[in-house]
């Protein structure tokens, strides 16, 4: 055990002595940032509406602008008639309303002019505000109709309407789809980087074979088994730190709620990480040089991550490719997370977890078999 | 006492026997020379002594204990200096030796003391904090040795420790080997440089095709070939030399050409020098010097294996 700890400390020092390895270690965090940038900006930022106020002298005209501004998820900006279209075209505003001069007077007279929202994004964006605005204007028009030109009465009822309290129970339903997409793709990047990072750490075995220190290590009281065990232990610790760091970053800095309890998510990721380490050992055991393992790593990790949906959502892929994805461990991890996000219980997903364990066991078995069959010490002496 | 006893040792890679039924003993306190051309089986034998390879057949005993069953004991007491450098270029000399010595269980002040002792021994005491990538070839070789001796092994296996280094470093290493031996270490030494082996080894084994074909002191080995002699003839140019006619001369065993020097091996009891010189004159050679050599290790090796050590 003392020797394994000595080897672990050496592996840690040697790995993180290189700046490039520190960068590789931190790549999952960068992946989450990238994912948040790609998916986090889609929707959910609120509606930006420009108001052209040409009836500012009238209280009703001013109240219309205030009403729109008070709507949930709407941010208003006062602008001029000349700038409104330009700002909408430039994407600085999502929609615009022009309140013409004398609009308030006509409304009080019971003959309101229709107020239309100007937008290039169509009803998908404006429907909610248009409906709320129409409702407001109809109510004011009804008051006008009821008071039949009696200004004093109108003002009194209008004031009671605008200030009057009525109880509305409001339940806010969050649109979690965007957050889930961000989480899903963030985990996709995390998975890919964990795999690359694992191979990089396991490659230390090949580096030590190439610089012949492996021979010296094995001629000391260190056994090949404890040497590999120390490498795996460092790999596991590094992988757990990567997962903890990434999940903390997602939650504490980017405020991304994955929709899955953090411990469950961490457990699934660690399970997958063990498979990634076993795969990295398999790659190393199949390679005679670092160059060979790098080629093998690129040949295995990048395409499988693409096929399993780590970089792009599986939904956009053809059906045949989706079927291929089912044979990849990355797919089973992402599928488990997806199902948990959609309300499946952790216990009901035992088959997914078993598949992940099976992948890890299969890779490890191949690696152990290859290591035990390696009789090529001649090349190290 | 025997430090190493090898009995019936065989190592096969497929059908090829790299080591073939080898038996050998090394006594404590010896500097044992292990001579053989490339592929003769030296490195495979060394790998098995260092527990890096499992024998196909036979056994190796270290201080009376079978190393297959007592690998830890053997490894704790053996230091290996590989032919190729086995050091970390991006770790300082001190860190290199410290790491490898740490594998033998040393920690704290004892570890520090052993590292400093090993580095001082190889003359790198003042280079502890420097990176090997800034070292000369000779300094790297010395660091390679320091990494193998910090745990004070009883047996040190040195595989071509002086390959490709300057004469000063070579001399330093040879003196270090003698010093280690004086301090009580047994040395198993392989080299392509026959003169090194002759200078430092107390006993020598010649390996060929995985077998020990001769084993003994320098004198014992030279005595094997008292029936032959070597004649060196320096000529101005070897152009026009007819080797076949030389070989036809009675008693001539072999003819080798090394630049402007002919090395003719001949049976000792036959006086054929005149015939050889006359044949060379007939071939138009301009003779500069003639010298009859007493048998040396190189002659012994050539006679026994039929090839040069560097073949």
Automatic annotation (TrEMBL), chain A:
A molecular function GO annotation: ABC-type transporter activity
Signal peptide range: none
Membrane topology, as annotated: Multi-pass membrane protein
Pfam family, one: ABC2_membrane_3
PROSITE patterns assigned to the protein according to its UniProt record, in alphabetical order: ABC_TM2
Domain ABC transmembrane type-2: 134-374
Compartments it resides in: Cell membrane
Annotated GO CC locations: ATP-binding cassette (ABC) transporter complex
Keywords: Cell membrane, Membrane, Transmembrane, Transmembrane helix, Transport
Transmembrane spans: 187-206, 227-250, 262-284, 296-314, 349-369
Similarity comment text for this entry: Belongs to the ABC-2 integral membrane protein family.
Protein name, per record: Transport permease protein
Species: Cohnella rhizosphaerae
Automatic annotation (TrEMBL), chain B:
GO molecular function, one term: ATP hydrolysis activity
Coiled coil: none
Keywords (A to Z) from UniProt: ATP-binding, Nucleotide-binding
InterPro entries: AAA+_ATPase, ABC_transporter-like_ATP-bd, ABC_transporter-like_CS, P-loop_NTPase
Keyword field contains Transmembrane: no
Domain spans labelled ABC transporter: 4-234
Organism domain of life: Bacteria
PANTHER family registered for this protein in UniProt: LINEARMYCIN RESISTANCE ATP-BINDING PROTEIN LNRL
Name of the protein this chain belongs to: ABC transporter ATP-binding protein
The species this protein was found in: Cohnella rhizosphaerae
């Amino acid at each position: 055990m003392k020797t394994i700890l000595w080897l672990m400390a050496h592996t840690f020092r040697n790995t993180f002595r290189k700046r490039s390895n520190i960068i590789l270690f931190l790549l999952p965090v960068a992946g989450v940032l990238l994912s948040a940038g790609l998916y986090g900006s889609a929707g959910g930022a609120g509606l930006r509406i420009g108001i052209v106020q040409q009836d500012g002298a009238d209280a009703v005209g001013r109240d219309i602008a205030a009403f729109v501004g008070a709507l949930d998820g709407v941010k208003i900006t006062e602008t001029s008639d000349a700038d409104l279209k330009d700002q909408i075209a430039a994407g600085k505003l999502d929609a615009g309303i022009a309140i013409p001069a004398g609009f308030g007077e006509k409304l009080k007279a019971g003959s309101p002019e229709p107020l239309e929202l100007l937008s290039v994004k169509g009803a998908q964006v404006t429907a909610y505000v248009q409906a709320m605005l129409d409702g407001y204007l109809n109510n004011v028009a009804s008051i006008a109709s009821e008071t039949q030109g009696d200004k004093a009465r109108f003002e009194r009822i209008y004031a009671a309407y605008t200030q009057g309290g009525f109880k509305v129970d409001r339940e806010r339903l969050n649109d979690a789809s965007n957050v889930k997409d961000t989480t899903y793709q963030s985990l996709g990047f995390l998975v890919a980087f964990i795999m690359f990072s694992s191979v990089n750490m396991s490659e230390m075995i090949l580096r030590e074979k190439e610089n012949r220190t492996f021979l010296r290590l094995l001629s000391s009281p260190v056994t090949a088994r404890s040497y590999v065990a120390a490498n795996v232990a460092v790999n596991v610790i590094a992988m757990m730190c990567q997962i903890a760091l990434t999940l903390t970053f997602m939650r504490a800095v980017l405020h991304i709620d994955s929709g899955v309890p953090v411990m469950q998510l961490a457990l699934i990721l660690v399970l997958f990480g063990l498979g990634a380490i076993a795969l990295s050992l398999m790659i190393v055991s199949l390679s005679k040089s670092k160059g060979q393992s790098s080629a093998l790593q690129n040949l295995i990790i990048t395409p499988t991550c693409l096929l399993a949906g780590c970089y792009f959502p599986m939904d956009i892929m053809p059906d045949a490719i989706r079927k291929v994805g089912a044979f990849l461990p990355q797919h089973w991890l992402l599928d488990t997370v997806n199902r948990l996000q959609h309300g499946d219980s952790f216990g009901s997903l035992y088959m997914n977890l078993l598949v992940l364990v099976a992948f890890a066991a299969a890779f490890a078995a191949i690696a152990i078999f290859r290591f035990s069959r390696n009789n090529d010490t001649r090349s190290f002496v | 006492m025997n430090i190493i006893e090898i009995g019936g040792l065989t190592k096969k890679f497929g059908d090829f026997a790299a080591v073939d039924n080898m038996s050998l003993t090394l006594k404590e306190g010896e500097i044992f020379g292990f001579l053989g051309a490339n592929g003769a089986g030296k490195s495979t034998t060394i790998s098995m002594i260092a527990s890096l390879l499992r024998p196909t057949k036979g056994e190796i005993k270290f201080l009376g204990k079978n190393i297959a069953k007592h690998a830890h004991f053997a490894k704790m007491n053996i230091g290996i200096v590989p032919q190729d450098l086995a050091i970390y270029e991006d770790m300082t000399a001190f860190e290199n030796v410290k790491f490898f010595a740490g594998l033998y269980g040393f920690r704290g002040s004892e570890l520090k003391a052993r590292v400093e002792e090993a580095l001082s021994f190889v003359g790198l005491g003042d280079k502890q904090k420097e990176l090997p990538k800034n070292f000369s070839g000779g300094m790297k070789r010395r660091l390679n040795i320091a990494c193998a001796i910090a745990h004070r092994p009883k047996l040190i296996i040195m595989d071509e420790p002086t390959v490709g280094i300057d004469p000063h470093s070579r001399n330093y290493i040879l003196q270090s080997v003698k010093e280690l031996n004086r301090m009580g270490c047994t040395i198993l030494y392989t080299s392509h440089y026959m003169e090194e082996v002759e200078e430092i080894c107390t006993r020598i084994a010649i390996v060929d095709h995985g077998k020990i074909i001769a084993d003994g002191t320098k004198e014992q080995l030279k005595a094997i070939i008292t029936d032959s002699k070597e004649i060196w003839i320096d000529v101005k140019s070897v152009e026009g030399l007819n080797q076949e006619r030389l070989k036809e001369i009675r008693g001539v065993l072999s003819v080798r050409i090394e630049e402007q020097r002919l090395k003719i091996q001949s049976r000792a009891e036959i006086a054929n020098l005149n015939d050889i010189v006359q044949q060379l004159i007939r071939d138009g050679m301009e003779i500069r010097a003639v010298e009859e050599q007493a048998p040396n290790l190189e002659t012994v090796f050539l006679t026994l294996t039929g090839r040069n050590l560097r073949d």
